[in-house]
Design brief:
The protein is 0% helix and 48% strand. It is an all-beta fold and 122 residues long.
Length: 122
């Protein structure tokens, strides 16, 4: 059973930074892809960033390129999302997800975390 736990969300002023963490447990594979998604109430969930399980290829949504950085610590089964130059439109619930066979960009993603709230406001 794979479980994902996110942390690091909070309230930050525009232009500030946050670092989200997602730790996976129950993994039984050597290679897997993980991604970050976000959702605002009433809107569809959107992909933010992801990293492949093989060569650590990365993907970023156009809206976050140059501001967000995804990385992973393989020994800790943890993926991070460093969020800099935050904007009010980044406000959302952020979810991490895991896939062992899906494409790292399009999925399908098999397991999801509970979400962590990010609020960017003055």
């Amino acid at each position: 059973q794979v479980q994902l736990v996110e942390s690091g969300g909070g309230l930050v002023q525009p232009g500030g930074s946050l670092r989200l963490s997602c730790t996976a447990s129950g993994l039984s594979v050597d290679y897997y892809s993980m991604g970050w998604f976000r959702q605002v109430p009433g809107k569809e969930r959107e992909g933010v960033s992801s990293i492949s399980g093989d060569m650590d290829r990365t993907y970023y949504a156009d809206s976050v390129k140059g501001r967000f950085t995804i990385s992973r610590d393989k020994a800790k089964n943890t993926v991070y999302l460093q969020m800099d130059s935050l904007k009010p439109e980044d406000t959302a619930t952020y979810y991490c997800a895991f896939t062992y066979y899906g494409d790292y960009v399009v999925g399908p993603y098999d397991y999801w975390g509970q979400g962590t709230q990010v609020t960017v406001s003055s």
